[in-house]
Amino acid sequence: MSSLTLAPRSVADFYEELMGTLRSMGLEVQIHAKPDEVGDPIPFPEDHQHASYDAEYANRFWRILVQTDRVFKRFRSRFIGKCSPVHFSGEL
Q: Which are the contacts of 9, defined by CB distance < 8 A and separation ≥ 6?
């Protein structure tokens, strides 16, 4: 099984490797490859401008999301009505 290396590199490079890895696994996927709700979006295959990655801060962000999901699930645990799942919003 292939794995993606998480390291500082351009969005275009990461996107190309991601799509290649998925294809090598026999997975043909369609991804809307242009960011939404940002000014002057650059399509992923063309984005050589953004190339930073900080593993420590990526991990911190992930842990914040996991904890937030737990809090939301606990908060609504006694609610008997219909509940939608927690969704990530691009606005932080």
A: 51, 53
